[in-house]
Amino acid sequence: MSSLRRDYVRETRAKQLLLRVGAHRTAEALTVFWNRRLRTTAGLACYRRKSVFLNPKILEIDVNEVERTLLHELAHFVAGERAGRMRIEPHGREWRQACRDLGIPDEARCHSLPFRQAQQTRKYFYRCGECGTVLARVRKIKRAIACLSCCRQYNGGQYHERFRFRPTEEPSSLAA
Q1: Exposure pattern of 87-124 as b/e (b: 16+ CB <10 Å)?
Q2: Is the confidence at residue 172, as pLDDT, over 60?
Q3: pTM here?
Q4: Mean pLDDT of 98-119
Q5: How far apart are CA 96 and CA 76, in angstroms?
Q6: What is the Cα–Cα distance from 99 to 30, expressed in whole angstroms?
Q7: How many whole angstroms separate alpha carbon 2 and alpha carbon 129?
Q8: What percent of the chain has pLDDT over 70?
Q9: CA distance 73 to 26
Q10: How buried is 162 (Cβ within 10 angstroms: 0-12 exposed, 13-18 middle, 19+ buried)?
Q11: Is 143 exposed, middle or buried (0-12, 13-18, 19+ CB in 10 A)?
Q12: Distance between CA 161 and CA 151 in Å, rounded?
């Protein structure tokens, strides 16, 4: 049995909202699913598939959270479409503006729903050669990613190889 169930009613509503705020490209392709495999998150926006995944457990907690979670995830798409090819922070100023435009001006980065917290060990570390920022990741990075702060400060928000995160040692061993 599939862990996904498509929600055509919420999908239609989401497309209407996206059109209202000018995110036409996303509205054309968007799909909305309930995903039983989600454990610690209320929702998930998947850019490549143009899909929103909702955790069915939010229905048991508070039906009003379904709408807020959907809007939260749609804000990621709106912010991304508005930014074009410019890299943006997932919950940065562009996302916060999209939240305001979608009617959730005080939206928080994380929910406060009573879901089990993920306990994952971060064992891969990457450093920006320019500013020294360290990323700790659970999985290896599979594509070239750069330090957003440095790209914004020195290259107009566009990717540049100079600011690419490179593998490094664990931070505790770097302090010595």
Answers
A1: bbeebeebbbebbebbebeebeeebeeebeeeeeeeee
A2: no
A3: 0.72
A4: 82
A5: 9
A6: 18
A7: 44
A8: 93
A9: 12
A10: middle
A11: exposed
A12: 10
DSSP 103-151: T-TT--SS----PPPP-----EEEEETTT--EEEESS---S--B-HHHH
Model confidence pLDDT, tens digit, residues 158-167: 999 999 999 9
Contacts of 85 (CB under 8 A, 6+ apart): 158
156 CB neighbour count, 10 Å cutoff? 9
What 3-state DSSP class applies to 22? coil
Tokens in use for 174?
């770097």
pLDDT band at 63 (very low <50, low <70, confident <90, very high): confident
Average pLDDT of 59-80?
92
- One-letter amino acid at 36 equals R
How far is it, in rounded angstroms, from Cα 11 to Cα 28?
11
> What is the number of H-type helices and E-type strands within the chain?
7, 7
Tokens of 28: 């054309």
In angstroms, how far is CA 90 from the centroid of its own chain? 5
Beta strand 165-168 pairing with 134-137: unpaired
C-alpha distances in Å from residue 162, one per residue of 17, 60, 91, 140, 168: 39, 48, 24, 20, 16
